[in-house]
Amino acid sequence: MTDHHMWDAVVPALTEQHTVIRYDLRGFGESAPPTGPFSESDDLRRLLDHLRHDRARLVGASWGGRVAVDFTLAHPERVRSLAILAAPWPRYHWSADMIAYDEAETGALETGDPDAAVRINLDSPGRSLGPR
What we know:
39% helix
């Protein structure tokens, strides 16, 4: 259960040499949950287009890292560099424990119980590598 605030400690150092854009994926932090089908990679593309950034150095952790990988695979010409931390890899086959964790966390979020989702996340079998 993270949002753009997880980067608070490193943003000042990054802004010395880079323009830093950080945002919450749908359903995280200050972003509303999805209301229909969408693509997180397309959301990132639209954000960069809106901000008029043709190329970017992408950094992402956990699911944000997965979005950065997906974006890079779809739009390699728009990526200067890529750094990912503990990102689930595309087409990775999850264990039964991780599938159960994801379903439980997603269910808690869908019922509007973020406190339960946090407890589930903290008790997950691979919380540092959890899918969301």
